[in-house]
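If your schedule permits, I should be very grateful for your opinion on a structural question. Please examine both parts with care and let me know of anything in them that strikes you as inconsistent. The record follows directly beneath this note:
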Amino acid sequence: MTIWEAVAVFAAGLGAGTINTIVGSGTLITFPVLLAFGLPPVTANVSNTLGLVPGSLSGAFGYRRELVGQRGRVLRFGLIALIGGLGGAILLLALPSKAFDTIVPALIAVALVLVIAQPRLAAALRARRERNGTTAARDGGWALLLGLLLASAYGGYFGAAQGVLYLSLMGLLLSEDLQRVNALKNVLAAIVNGVAAVFFLFVAHFDWTAVALIAVGSTLGGQLGAKVGRRLPPTALRAVIVLVGLLAIAQLLLK
């Protein structure tokens, strides 16, 4: 790797760490860069996952204030993320890369619709519960747990726009401020990346130079993303989520 290639990979890691903390989809920055510099797809994906772990942890730490009072959720959802992330990592080595090519853009599109419609859908759900005299399922119920399991499996497999899926699911099924939901998203992403990384260390090939450069860049980006993301009002944050999600769909369809 030349010095300019190293600079490009570091910059990609910085950008990925920043956007991952605010929304997600940082993989769409780093993965194409690694491919452009000659890494095979699976090696690039594995190296990217390993490199983004420190950035995920950095972003979660940056949002630590919004995690206050959510310890129970972190433990429950974290266990689901761990199981799903490990399953996705296993699938990466067992299935052809085209297995998700058709469904992923559609999945992200549905998630974006949920993000946009979340305030009205949440209000409609509350009104329906009031009419029926029922209460909301604790922490989203089984529907949210199943959704998080599938989103985590996808995250362990590839991870592009994983954060968008998390935000759409938790934003709809949890009665929480979007920034507190974003804090949860960062923790779950860190767990998925972490368990997938540990698995890959023992069974997959990766490029240590790329891993190190992305790790340093994404760690700095995680702190930058936390500072920017926490200042965004809910409407602006939704706009960023939708913009990133649309870019992710476009890139996945045109690759």
About this structure: The CA atoms of residues 63 and 179 lie 9 Å apart. The mean pLDDT is 84. The chain has ten helices and no strands. The two ends are 24 Å apart (CA to CA).
